[in-house]
Amino acid sequence: MEEDARSPAELAAAIGAARDRLIGFVRGCTDEQWRSAPLDGDPRPVGVVVDHVAHSYEYLGGWIHQLVAGRPVDVNNEVVDALNAEHAQAAASVSRADATAHLLRSGDAIGALIAGLSTADLEAGGGRVRRFAQIAIRHPDDHRSEIETALAGQAAGRS
Fold first, then answer.
1. What is the pLDDT of residue 1?
2. Rounded CA gap, 125 and 15, in Å?
3. What span, in angstroms and rounded, lies between the C-alpha atoms of 97 and 91?
4. pLDDT(61) > 50
5. pLDDT tens-digit profile of 141-151?
6. Alpha-carbon distance 151 to 10, whole Å?
7. Which of 91, 111, 124, 156 stands 20 to 30 A from 130 (CA)?
8. Cα–Cα distance between 159 and 88 in angstroms, integer?
9. Are 26 and 99 in contact (CB under 8 A)?
10. Which class does domain 8-153 fall in?
């Protein structure tokens, strides 16, 4: 990963901007798109994927709190997969309004957390706090763009 010298305030602003782009996408979804599962190999409907981003802000924030406090954090693919599977079941029928509110609430919380850190805090856990902030920036855009691409492909296949 290339060096990211952004300040805590700049990282927080980037998290908010990425979250807002996802909310803009959500607001433009049709009800059919919201309920569809357009991603190959991913059975989750769009609504669950969107709410998953909001949920991920919460566990990323928890890990950041732990690292800044000097406590170790055990994060690996198994941990993340378990969190995602648990969330998919809990959010199976999430409404657009609830997912949007969740994105706003959890996005604001992680943004405030990051903005309140010092530059030294970003390097806690061997730089993991900064990497978690970067994930919070990329994650909504990655999911949004892959869903948009899949939905466009579906629409093209119907015409």
1. 47
2. 20
3. 13
4. yes
5. 999 999 999 99
6. 32
7. 91
8. 31
9. yes
10. mainly alpha
